[in-house]
Amino acid sequence: MLTARNLTKNYSNLPVLKGVDVTVNKGEIVTIVGSSGAGKSTLLHILGTLDTPTSGEVWLNDVNLTALKGNALADFRNRHMGFIFQFHHLLPEFTAIENVCVPGFIAGHNKNEVKKRAVFLLETLGLGHRVDHKPNELSGGEQQRVAVARALINNPDIVMADEPTGNLDSHNARELHQLFFQLRDQFQQTFIIVTHNEELAPLSDRQLVMKDGKML
User: Fold this and answer.
1) Could you give the domains of the chain?
2) Are 104 and 153 in contact (CB under 8 A)?
3) Which of 37, 85, 183, 194 has its CA 20 to 30 A from that of 172?
4) Nearest partner of 49 among 2, 109, 86, 104, judged by Cα
5) What was the pLDDT predicted at 36?
């Protein structure tokens, strides 16, 4: 489903990625692990089109993402990809359901349908009783679940998660990883997860290990 070929990334004269190949299948949960500075987050941002490679290509469902530019790229990203970050990036003035709806509204989907899906996702994630709460009224684990629902609102082909448990305690981290498997089983959702969590990374379907900008 997702294929990256010979990705390189240089910052000035510093090579960060040195010819990385990645393939991810539909319904697969793949973790990317490695020490700090190995290039994990850079790779994830390039796979998610949040950054551009110096050379190489990224394909998602037969679309060459590295050939898309400007509004076409932004629209494709919004419709086909979801993102979860270590820090939830929820809008503090918006309720949980409003935060979840934002990408759906940006995509131009019917507002009533977006709201229905947002409620469904929040209920699926155990937050049906918190839809009208603002982020400062939610625990860290609850905020991250809202961020997961937001990532899923447009029914994306793939979800990119960058250290999604990095700001959570061990209990909430374990629950979030279990949630990813629940979503994979229920919706055939595909995940690529960058993580330092040595306990949870092996639970994924496949681990990709990076070192010094290369895949081992």
Assistant:
1) 24-35+69-208 (3.40.50.300)
2) yes
3) 37
4) 2
5) 81
Taking only the tens place, the pLDDT of each residue in 100-149 is 999 999 989 999 999 999 999 999 888 999 999 999 999 988 998 999 99
Structure-block tokens of residue 19: 């010819």
- Contact status, residue 15 vs residue 62, Cβ threshold 8 Å: no
- At 159-202, the pLDDT tens digits run 999 988 888 888 888 888 888 888 888 889 999 999 887 777 88
Phi and psi, residue 126, nearest 5°: 80, 20
Q: Against a cut of 0.70, is the pTM above it?
A: yes
Closest CA to 144 of 193, 96, 93, 194: 96
Phi-psi map region of 164: left, alpha, beta (phi>0 left; psi -120 to 50 alpha): alpha
